Structures are given as structure tokens and as C-alpha cells.
Amino acid sequence: MKFLLLPLSLLILTACVGPSPKPEADLAKFGVDSLPDEYSRSASNQFSASEWLGSFKSAELNRLVDRAIETNRTLAQKAAAVRLAEQRVTIAEATLWPSLGLSLSSQRADTGITPTNQFGLSLSAAYEVDLWGKLNTAQKQSQIDLAGQRASYQEVKRTLVRDVVNAGFDVSSATQLLVLLNQRYTNLNESLDVIERGYRSGLNDALDVYLSRNTLELERAGIANQQQVHFESLTRLELLTGDYPAAKLVISAGLQSLPLDPVEAGIPAGLLQRRPDVQQAWLEMLSADAGVAIAHRNRFPALNLSGSLSDSSQALDELLDGGSLAWRVAASLIQPLFQGGRLNALEEQARIRLEQKEKRYLDVVFNALAEVENALNRGQALSARYEAFVRAEKNAGTALELAFDQYQRGLAPYTTVLESQRRAFDAQTTLIQLRNQQLKNRANLLLALGGDY
User: What number does CATH give the domain 25-98+132-299+342-448?
Assistant: First the structure.
């Protein structure tokens, strides 16, 4: 009858536990089924941004991206986090197996007559029976965490590629603006020579000379400021590519003329499978759900089995001869009875963490949708503005030629020339800036859509 007590106790305890908590990872519960059928700014339900970096058709960008992936320290840290998660999986899997230990001891004692030696050899084993699936759930949780770390790594990698591409565009734009400023400075210097000759000939007023000199000095200050902007944008790029402080990167201004092919955004639900950040949030929620199950099962008994096999001898070569071989087998069933509400609080904490992860998942999903919508709308607005400034730049250039011609013939004051110069320069500068914004927004859109680099 005594041998029936342990199995009977286990049967009764199992009946008291009831069914395990069901996973709460139900898409419908989170309102994901309320995703819109299509984006308001995209008429196509096809997705065309699977390899978005290639759409720019730039070997220079490809080279920068490859360099960054190879050397970026932040990405290397995430890779190390993935390796740590792999080791945690191994640790969790190890709990499902028995642990074995082997010990060899030796001692020498002097009893006052003849010194004696005593050698001992012991093999021990311990095993926790996974009665309620707690250890198995912990092992699955570690695998989910590993998948989450891998998704996090992919997100950091994709964001790094986006940042490198945008930094490359910024350097290219800064280079183009610097070229424009230097060219404008040269033109203003030539205009000043004409005005000064006219003044010496009595054709122009001294006011015109001073206004022209003032404009030239302002332009010189603008060049110094743009040189600093160019330097800082290049430094940002070098930090991303791991080249800082070598200061050897050279980015051509030609990046600003890259093509912007139409993008087919696909359907909003496609983001749930394509975007690593959404996948990471989903996996974190699954991990939190597993944590609830583990915290719940920690409140039930733990069955531990142990055994040992040992031998001792006064001579090392006589160990395991069977003369003094001893063995021991034991089982223990530990049931938490009272811990002042600690276990209940731990389970409640796990449920609260799951609730947090659920809300975070919703935030990530709908923020992802908003990113796409904003980028699509911004792309259309930037395109309309760029086309308008192309026409404005052409008109401003023509107006500047007419104003300077009329000034030289005495038909217009020099202030008209200065205003025409300002309008022409503003239009040229805005065109370069808008083109840079278009390129960066395109990279942001393709990343927001979940396209791979």
C-alpha cells in the first residue's frame, strides 16, 4: 500500500490543476481584423518593394550598405544578443534532461598507529519530472525569445541600411548645395566687378557697390556654414559605416539624380508578415503568454528524483571492485503551501506583462500602417512641390537675366537685381532640398512597407 501513495497523490493533484491556460495570441482579439483593405494613397494591391535598395540602381549606395553591415558596431551588438539567446535555449533545453555528476575523493588519516589512505568514487544523478509542462513551456519560451531576438536583429539591420542610404543622400545634397554656393559666389564676384567699374565710370551709385559687397560677404558666410553642414553629414555617414575618423569617404553629388520608380504598396495586412518590428512585438507577446503559464504552474508541486552510486577503498586500484559498493535512490515532492501571496503576485505580474505586450503589439501594428500612409502622402506632396519649384526656378532665372540687363541700361534699380538674385537662389536651393527629401522619403516608404534591402 505504501508504494501506491505517491502515484495516488500525483493523480489527485493533477485532477485539481484543471486545464492549462490557453494562449491568448488571437489576432481577432487584438482588433487586427479591422485593418483597412487598402492604403488611401495607393490604388494598387500589389507589393513591389521586396528589394528596395536595388530600386535606386546605385552601386555607390550598395557599397556603403555592404560596408555598414560589415563594420557597424550597433549591428554587431544585436548579433551578440542573438548568440546569447541561442545559449539561453541550450540552458532551457538542459533542464529537460537529468544532471549527472562524478566525484573522486582522497584523504589520508593518521590514527597514531599507521597512516591510512581512503579513496572514494561517487556518481550522482538528479532529475525534475516535468509534471505540469512547466519546463517544456520554459524551453518553448526561450525559443520564442530567440526568434524575437532574430527579428530584432533584422529590424536593426534594415534600419541601419535605411539610415546609411539617407545619410548618403544628405552628404550628396550637401555637396550639391556647396557647389551651388561656390558657383553663386563666383557669379556675384563677377557682378561686383561690373558694378565697381560702372561706379568708377560714374554710371552707378556708391549704394549699389555697397549692396553688392554686402551680398558677396553674406554668400561667403553661407559657404562657411554649408561646409560645416557637409562635414557633419559626412561624419554621420562615417559613424554608420565604421569609417570614422578616417574621413576618407567621398560621396558624389550624382546620388541626387537617382530615379524614383513608382511603388506598389500592396495591402496593409501584408505588413504583419513583412516587418520585423511587427514580428518582434508579436513574439514578445507570445513569450509573455508563456510566462503566464510558467508562473501559474510554479504554484503546483515539483517532483524531484535523485540517485547515487558510490564506492570507497583504501587502495585506488581497488575502487569499483564491488566490495563496498553502495547505491541510493530518492524522490521528493515539494508543494508550496504558504508564501504570503508571493506566487499569486508573480502570476499576476506575468498577466500584467502580457497585457502590456498586447497593447504594444497593437501600437506597433497601427504605427506601421500610419508610417506607410504618411510616407505615401508625403511622396505625393513632395512631387507636387518639386514640379512647382522646377517652374519657379526657370522663371526666377529668366527674371534675373532681365533685371540685370535692365539695371545695366539704367531701367531698373539695383534692389530689383538683388531681389531677383534672392528668388533665383532660393528656388535652386529648394529644388536640391526637395530632391533630397524625395529620395529619403522613398527610402523611408520602402522600409515602412517591410521591403528587404
Answer: 1.20.1600.10
